[in-house]
Amino acid sequence: MSWRAPENCDEINRRLLALEQDLLAVYRRTQEPGCLLTSPAFRFVCDWVDEDPYRGLLMSRIKHPHAFTPRHGINVMLIARAWMSWGHRLGDKRDKHALAALVHDIGHWSQPALLHVFGFFQKTEYRQMQQHARLPDAHSFPEGHPLADPDIRLWIEQHHEQPDGRGYPDGIRDPHVLSQVLRIVDCYEGLTTDRRFRTRYTPHQALRLMARWAGYKFNAGLFKNFQRFVGVFPPGTFVSLVDGRLGAVLPALEAQTCHVLVLTGEEGDPVAAARVVAVPAARVREEAPAWRQVALPEPWRTLRPDLMALPRS
């Protein structure tokens, strides 16, 4: 059995744009975070991801180059929700965790001087930035406010803590497992996004880099589970097979097997009709360089929403 691409991304793109506007209103303090839980866009996105977690992972390929924009929160929520829906059961904490993922960087917006730093932070700026994970005292929020919820507070305030004790803001060694989910996803999303001081890593490159950090920047077992979800070559990655064919990776529905949409023959000529083949992971030679990538045929264009020129406003 292989994964089937959604017919289009128009409706989910509209809902994500609406959720971005809702989140921006929260950042600007014209709307309370609790409104996000009752937002039609939030509910639609969560349900849409739950139906097929890999759709959420693929939509997170749409990026914005500035870290402190609503799109980063959107993508962290998409990936975290997808991962948890794929292999974990959070019960009545599912929506709370999705909300924590969405607003995990809300503290940045209480530091307006740092919002427009586009290069590396100076030492004093970096120390100030490390405080963004701290939330105001819970008693400063009215009863029922999301940022007064003990779980949401814990997940947000520990999302930069590390098992080696070198995280921030408190340097603890035993961060909560659902905070570590946010830590892993936040790191992955950040690495795969362009920054003013570096270009983005591909998802495959980001995973290889993160594998070196597992065990001290984040929980090694949890990261291994994340790797199982996204695969060695995450969905949408263009790859070269050992026989020379070019293909695009589909979501990994079977361990140790890659489902690849084959796009060219062994000599590099486009095939008349793309077809899905299941190949052992060892038969994937490498990630294909950008110059080898080709246009995806119908009905597979939605495998790469970031290449579809979807409206951004």
Describe this structure in words.
The chain is of the alpha+beta class and about 325 residues long. The protein has two domains: about 220 residues, Hypothetical protein af1432 (Orthogonal Bundle), CATH 1.10.3210.10; about 70 residues. Helix content is about 40%, strand content about 10%. It has twelve helices and five strands. A five-stranded antiparallel beta sheet has the order 4-3-2-1-5, with no helix packed on it. It is globular and about 65 Å long. The protein starts with 9 loop residues before the first helix and ends in a 26-residue tail after the last strand. About 40% of the residues are buried. The mean pLDDT is about 90. Pfam families: HD_5. This is HD domain-containing protein.
Order of helices and strands: HHHHHHHHHHHHEEEEE
Helix percentage: 25-40%
Overall morphology: globular
CATH architecture of the largest domain: Orthogonal Bundle
> In CATH terms, what is the fold-level topology of the largest domain?
Hypothetical protein af1432
User: Low-confidence segments, ≥5 residues, pLDDT <50?
Assistant: none
- The count of DSSP E runs of length 2 or more, i.e. the number of strands, is 5
- Looking at this structure, what is the CATH superfamily of the largest domain? Hypothetical protein af1432
- The chain-level mean pLDDT equals 92
The major β-sheet equals: 5 strands, antiparallel
What structural class is derived from the secondary structure elements? alpha+beta
| Cα distance spanning the termini | 36 Å
Task: Indicate the radius of gyration in whole angstroms.
Answer: 20 Å
